[in-house]
């Protein structure tokens, strides 16, 4: 069976555990045919021998998609529960314990989402829209992010930045502690450092950085509030959105409990971690509807 760029495949050597998109097909220095892969649901980048791959038929892809959609629906439901609790708390405080009928409005944090994968970027933007999070999305190759982050901050003035794409740890390139053994972790670290040159304070600019198997410790040291991947596991493509949305809808007078953020993600604490961070939601009043609104 011929495999072409754009096909959905799985690796026999890994018992067909994950679905991948074929990004490129090339020959290595030994003349072997190698395929560059991007995870279909996880932010993993991998090289695989051509002969190790099996092209997945549409029926199997759809069956796996149903399972994945169920996981997403559960996370969305749990997030909506959390959001409702936050909304009720804000309403109680603004109305003086429901003693008045003051109408109010809320202003969540603004997000700048920089992604190395245009397809994942669109998936994330769709989820931000469901959460009603104000966001600007930018597609940028991981190696170029540190060169562009400064001008993007100046242009969009975000409250939160997501720096993500694809990554992977390669045991053949070094120890787990060696950042050179990772595909893009050092590029994410450079980007975080450049962002912190613009806004050093951790609560004035909240940063999520990383992808699958990323060097978590280096990203946190560089200045990220949240990052992947503490146990060097794969993270889901949409995990950054859940973290960011929770911060956006936590009142700015409250601190975001790290566990509260992680527990409703698709990956959990093995793939994601962070430090205590202030929320970004601001509540204002009064809210007035004008005649032209009707």
Automatic annotation (TrEMBL):
<dbReference type="InterPro" id="IPR008764">
    <property type="entry name" value="Peptidase_U57"/>
</dbReference>
<protein>
    <submittedName>
        <fullName>Sporulation peptidase YabG</fullName>
    </submittedName>
</protein>
<dbReference type="Pfam" id="PF05582">
    <property type="entry name" value="Peptidase_U57"/>
</dbReference>
């Amino acid at each position: 069976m011929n495999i072409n760029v754009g096909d959905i495949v799985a690796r026999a050597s890994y018992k067909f555990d994950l679905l991948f998109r074929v990004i490129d097909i090339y020959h290595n220095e030994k003349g072997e045919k190698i395929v560059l892969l991007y995870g279909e649901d996880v932010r993993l980048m991998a090289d695989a021998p051509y002969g190790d791959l099996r092209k997945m038929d549409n029926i199997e892809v759809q069956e796996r998609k149903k399972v994945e959609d169920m996981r997403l629906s559960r996370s969305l439901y749990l997030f909506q529960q959390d959001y409702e609790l936050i909304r009720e708390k804000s309403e109680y405080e603004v109305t003086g314990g429901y003693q008045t009928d003051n109408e109010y409005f809320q202003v969540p944090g603004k997000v700048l989402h920089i992604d190395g994968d245009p397809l994942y970027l669109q998936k994330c933007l769709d989820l931000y829209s469901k959460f009603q999070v104000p966001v600007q999305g930018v597609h940028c190759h991981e190696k170029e992010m540190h060169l562009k982050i400064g001008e993007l901050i100046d242009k969009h003035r975000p409250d939160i930045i997501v720096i993500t794409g694809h990554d992977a740890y390669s045991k053949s390139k070094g120890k787990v502690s060696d950042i050179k053994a990772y595909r893009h972790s050092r590029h994410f670290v450079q980007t975080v450092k450049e962002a912190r040159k613009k806004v050093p304070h951790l609560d004035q600019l909240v940063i999520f950085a990383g992808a699958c198997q990323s060097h978590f410790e280096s990203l946190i040291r560089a200045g990220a509030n949240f990052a992947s991947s503490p146990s060097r596991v794969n993270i889901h493509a949409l995990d950054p959105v859940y973290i960011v949305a929770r911060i956006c809808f936590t009142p700015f007078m409250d601190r975001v409990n790290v566990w509260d953020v992680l527990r409703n993600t698709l990956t959990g604490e093995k793939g994601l971690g962070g430090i205590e961070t202030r929320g970004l939601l601001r509540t204002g009043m009064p809210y007035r509807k004008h005649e032209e609104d009707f």
